[in-house]
Amino acid sequence: MRQIVEIFPTERQRLFNRLEDRLETAYNLNRKVVSFQANKDEPIYRWFKYKEGFSAQLVKYFFSEYSPKPGRVFDPFVGVGTTLFAGQELGWESFGIELLPVGVFVMQTRKAVNEIDLIKLKNTIESLWTELSKIKIFDKHIKHISITEEAFPDETEISLNKYLTYCSSIKDKKIQTVLRFAAFAVLEEVSYTRKDGQYLRWDYRSKRDLSGKPFNKGKILTFKEAVMHKLNQIVNDLSTNKSDSLFSISENNGNERPPINIRQGSCLEELPKLNNDFFDFIITSPPYCNRYDYTRTYALELVFLGYNSEQVRKLRQEMLSCTVENKEKIDFLNQLYISYGNPEIFGKVLNVYDNSNAMTEVNSILEELNKLGKLNNNNIPRMVKNYFLEMCFVIYEMARVTKSGGFCVMVNDNVRYGGEEVPVDLILSEFAENFGFNINKIFVLPKGKGNSSQQMGIYGRTEIRKSVYLWQKR
Ligand SMILES: C[S@@+](CC[C@H](N)C(=O)[O-])C[C@H]1O[C@@H](n2cnc3c(N)ncnc32)[C@H](O)[C@@H]1O
Asked: Do β-strands 199-202 and 193-196 pair in parallel, antiparallel, or remain unpaired?
């Protein structure tokens, strides 16, 4: 197969040749700006690090370059709302969809802190431990699921449940939200776990039966230490002038801030409900096609928010297919478009997917590699196929809801399986072109992403592109 690839240009190569003039190394978009790291000086992002996010700077950069006059901005994979809040600051009316309640809770907190009575919050925190010491009977708020069982030291679990019992007695909903958020934001710190890509990594001190090399995550804070530190951080940030710029109206020429509209649910279901030609700008970053499992990474937070095993499993399946556990959603999508009275759209989108030669090539090579036992999981071909299929529907819908002349910016990484590069940027851009977007640019970050150490051993250190696509509706 290698030889065939070398002698004949592959379909991926053909697509690359056709779109090569749109690829541009973006020296002004470094990895920091494209990732959550550039946010870390901003209060809300410092309180809870959503590592899957991009930076507010990135969003503001694209607004200033391509659409300085505010209108309506949209993000179908909103995460913790970077696009929406950066847009709002600059006077954009902001809309977004997010499936995971984790991001939705962070956004609710962000809204709550904007309107909070700071004196009341400080007073509540001052009397917190006195109030907690009075609680003898408490509810069991944390109801574990199998992947979170034994995640906390016993003492911490008790403190957490007492704290949440106290929180539910607080009448002021904004104060209650901020107090609950402080506990939510320290769950990892006070647990025996560490977020580690596809799953949680467990410290050797937990009561779990652990196999493999023991892992020591270092000092595990008590709940009191961690939550007080977090609450003080929040109060300090809210009290200082620095945070004023984040929460004030200064950047919007003194006008009232426009609203932020968030829908919780899957964008596959929510997008078709939106009006045609409605948005001026989309700035988004879908999950990458990289096996990253949000529902495992954020299992503690999901349990904290009251999600049980069944609900977590359901969320995992509703996510855009990016893990080997995701099952096909094709029948579901077919039924969905029938139920919305648009069965022809289903056929139209499927047609674009089926007509992508690069996509067909990727699918058949991955199937082949799988048969040869060259992939480290049998479900990788299914995941990749479904990732692109679902993204094809998302991109169709994004084109439909964008006004003529409006822009779409998408951040995404290319991936590689069994040594074969999957040019996510080119294939998704080709879909976009079919649905009415022009591919203005594919900005490539100066330094791509290396291979996983496992793959590097076999295929050598080559870099795959990490890109930001700029499409414009015709
Ligand atoms: C790369 S993150 C986006 C982060 C965001 N740009 C930010 O700065 O916070 C992708 C997001 O898509 C969400 N997601 C995955 N599948 C989804 C679906 N079917 N519908 C809506 N959101 C989904 C994930 O929960 C995750 O928050």
From this structure: antiparallel
Q: How far apart are the CA of 291 and the centre of ligand 1, in A?
A: 14
For residues 67-80, one letter each, b for 16 or more C-beta atoms within 10 angstroms of the residue's C-beta and e for the rest, the string is beebebbbbbbbbb
Residue 339 neighbours by CB under 8 Å, 6+ apart = none
Phi then psi for 390, rounded to 5 degrees?
Answer: -65, -40
Query: Terminus-to-terminus CA distance in the chain, angstroms?
Result: 39
Q: Which sign, positive or negative, has the C-alpha torsion 380, 382, 385, 388?
A: negative
Pick left, alpha or beta for residue 306 (phi over 0 → left; psi -120 to 50 → alpha; otherwise beta): left
* Average pLDDT, consecutive stretches of 10 residues, N- to C-terminus, the chain (474 residues): 57 96 91 74 85 94 94 98 96 98 96 93 96 91 95 96 96 97 98 89 93 92 97 94 44 70 98 98 98 96 98 98 97 97 97 98 97 97 98 98 98 96 97 98 78 46 87 98
Q: How far is the CA of 155 from the centre of ligand 1 (A)?
A: 34
Would you say how long the chain is, in residues?
474
DSSP state of 93: E
Residue 173: which residues within 8 A CB-CB, separation 6 or more? 112
Residue 430, both tokens: 């080709």
Q: State whether the beta carbon of 50 lies less than 6 angstroms from ligand 1.
A: yes
Tell me the C-alpha distance between 31 and 24, whole Å: 15
Q: Is the CB of 412 under 6 A from ligand 1?
A: no
Domains parsed from the chain with CATH numbers? 2-40+54-66+87-99+251-286+325-454+465-473 (3.40.50)
Per DSSP, the three-state class of 180 is helix
Ligand 1 within 6 A of CB of 98: yes
Taking the C-alpha atoms of residue 54 and residue 33, their distance in angstroms, rounded to an integer, is 7
DSSP string, 236-253: HHHHSHHHHHHHSSGGGT
What would the two tokens of residue 274 be? 């939106």
Q: How far is the CA of 9 from the centre of ligand 1 (A)?
A: 35
pLDDT at 461: 52
Q: Does the beta carbon of 294 lie inside 6 Å of ligand 1?
A: yes
Q: Which of 110, 305, 314, 319 to mutate to test the pocket of ligand 1 (most atoms within 8 A of CB)?
A: 319
Q: Output phi, psi for 247, to 5 deg.
A: -100, -5
Q: Is 52 in the pocket of ligand 1 (CB under 6 A)?
A: yes
